[in-house]
Each structure stands twice: as structure tokens, then as C-alpha cells.
Amino acid sequence: MTDSNLPPCITGLMGSDGLLGPGVSLVQTHISYVLIGDTEVLKVKKPVDFGFLDFTTLEKRRFFCHEELRLNRRLCPDVYQDVVPIGMDDKGSNLAGLGEVVEYGVLMRRMPEAGMMGRLIAAGRVDKKTIDAIVAILVPFYRQAATGGEINELGRAGAVAVNVTENFDQTRAMVGSGGLDRSRFDRLVAWSREFLAKTELFAARVEAGRVREGHGDLYSANICIEDLKKIHIFDCIEFNQRFRCCDVASDIAFLAMDLDFHGLNGLSNYLLASFGEKSGDDGLMEIATFYKVYRAYVRGKIGLFTANAPEVDAATAATALAGAERYFSLADSYISNNPS
User: Domain of 96?
Assistant: First the structure.
């Protein structure tokens, strides 16, 4: 999207000398405009509907901005500052809600780029001490997170199957076109279905209190490590309860899978063992592989979507396709070593 196609309120904020300061840069995702200033960041939701999320009305965007603030303050109270109304008056855009309120945004403190976990992994600066510090944050977080009632139901086999089956349905038409071949797809589908038939295992996890209102997107891209005493785990899923409310094992397995993806298998195993021990979760390992397969497939799916998007250039598409193939290969390696 070119600047001329951006909403006027966004272009106005980029050119302002207001709260975000001069020289604001813009990063876009498929669901957000992210305006980055020197010390603060403003995240504005796009008016899109992808089925699993619906931001099509101003009221919905306002609601989910407040949900993003509420949920992320659990782990990042000093990063997520406020929900601000974006107004348009005869002077242009403003963050005070003056004139007509046309959007809402989540105002955040800018975290240091040098501390982003992906960068630290690439530099070889993530070790067991890093994992210990993350586990020390996550264990009490999940212990205190909401549970029971509707949340618990989302951890049962039938509810989990909705998410797993959705992934397969969304990628079925792309099988064989690159990134995911038919035999691998069929193996992953069959293995996942067999595991989901273990309904008593999922029920036991519910009864043990292991299903919580968690994070939903727990991997290195959403972790910033300023130092071992100041770790931010941010950008939890606010837009869909069934992605956020899950077995704790699903969240922890996502980070473990991500470490595997980056070649840190020893740290991946250490994370699972350490979290299991410190949280008293003796059954974590029994279900962790299933959720690692699920999470790897989700990341592969996103790669396929990116590679097949018409607006994506050839180089980006090739990179996304190669990444997708790596994720699907990783998922396949898990099931090869762990028959259901």
C-alpha cells in the first residue's frame, strides 16, 4: 500500500510533531498499522475481516484495542500505556480525540531493537540463563491466569480439533504447489487426527487446571530481553479467544518449537523440562509434541499464505516458501520420532 492509499488519519500522524514526535516510521502487517516514534509506538487496527478476526467497525476496533491493553498488561504493564482516540479536525490528525474520532490506537513504550529475542538468537546470546529468566516469568503468569468455565472447554479435544482442522482446510488447496507435498500433508493430518482421538488425555489436562487464558503467540518474535531482570513478553492474541485460551502446553510448546526451528534443540528440551518441573506439570511432555506439531504447522501455513499473496514480490515469496517448507519439515520430524 502506497502512502496515497493510507487512511488520512495515518498519514497525518506520520507527518505530525505531536506525541510520537517527528520522523515517524510505518510498519504494516495484514491487520495493523504500526507507527514507530523515537520512544513510543502506536498500533492501529485495520478494518479487515479474516473470519478468525473482525475489525470491520470502529466500535469493534475500539473494543479490541482495550482488550489488547488489558491482556498485554498482564506481562508488560510498563510497555502498554493506553488506548488513545484518533481524531480528525480542521487541523488534521490528533491523538486527543478532537473533532471526529475516526480510529483508536494502542500506545506503547518502544522497546529496544537490540533486545529482541530473534536478534539475540542470531547473535548466539540466548542460553539456559535466558530460559530460566523466561520460565521464572511464565510459571506465575499461568498460575494466576484465568481458568474454568468457557476457558476450560477450549482445551478439550473437540475444541482443539477445530483449530487443527482449520489449518488443514486452509492449506489444502496449496498442497503440492511448493512448500508442502501431498505425502507430508497426509501424514500430518493422519497423525493429528489420531492424537486428537485421545479425548481422555485432553480432559485430564482440563481437570488438572492446565487450560488458561494464556498468550496465544508465545515465540521469540514477541519477546524482548532488555536484561535478565527486564523481559517483555508482548503482543498476545486479543482478537480471538479460542487462540488465546488453551492448554499451557500449547503456549510453551510454541516457544520450544521456535527454539528447535532456530537449531537450539538443547534449549528447547531444557525449556520444556524446566517449565514442567517448576510449574509441577508432570504431564507436559506427554502432550508437548502434539502442540509442537500444531504450532509448526501454523507457522508453515502463514508462510504459504505470504508466498501466495498476489501483492508479494518474487523474492519475498521465495523466502516465505522456503520458510514454510522448513516449518512443515520440522512438524514432520516430530511425528516421525513420536508415533501417535
Answer: 3-110
Is residue 72 domain-shared with residue 145, that is, in the same domain? no
95, 66 contact by CB (below 8 A)? no
Q: How far apart are CA 243 and CA 111, in angstroms?
A: 25
Q: Are residues 123 and 106 in the same domain?
A: no
- Between the alpha carbon of residue 293 and those of residues 74, 186, 327, the distances in Å are 27, 14, 9
Among 83, 110, 137, identify where a domain stops.
Answer: 110
Assessment of whether the complete model's pTM goes beyond 0.85: yes
For every one of its 340 residues, what pLDDT tens digit does the chain have, with 9 covering 90 and above?
445 578 888 888 886 555 576 778 888 887 889 999 989 999 999 999 988 899 999 999 999 999 999 999 999 999 999 999 999 998 888 888 999 999 999 999 999 999 999 999 999 999 999 999 999 999 999 999 999 999 999 999 999 999 999 999 999 999 998 899 999 999 999 999 999 999 999 999 999 999 999 999 999 999 999 999 999 999 999 999 999 999 999 999 999 999 999 999 999 999 999 999 999 999 999 999 999 999 999 999 999 988 888 877 899 889 999 999 999 999 999 998 877 6
Q: How many domains does the chain have?
A: 2
Q: Are residues 77 and 17 in the same domain?
A: yes
Same domain, 79 and 16: yes
Q: Count CA within 13 A, CB hemisphere, residue 216.
A: 18
3-state secondary structure of 304: helix
| Contact assessment for residue 42 and residue 35, using Cβ atoms and an 8 Å cutoff | yes
Q: What span, in angstroms and rounded, lies between the C-alpha atoms of 76 and 73? A: 5
CA distances from 207 to 28, 152, 202 (A): 41, 9, 9
* Cα angle 22, 23, 28; round to 5: 125
Handedness of CA 141, 145, 151, 155 (dihedral sign): positive
Assess whether 244 and 196 both reside in one domain: yes
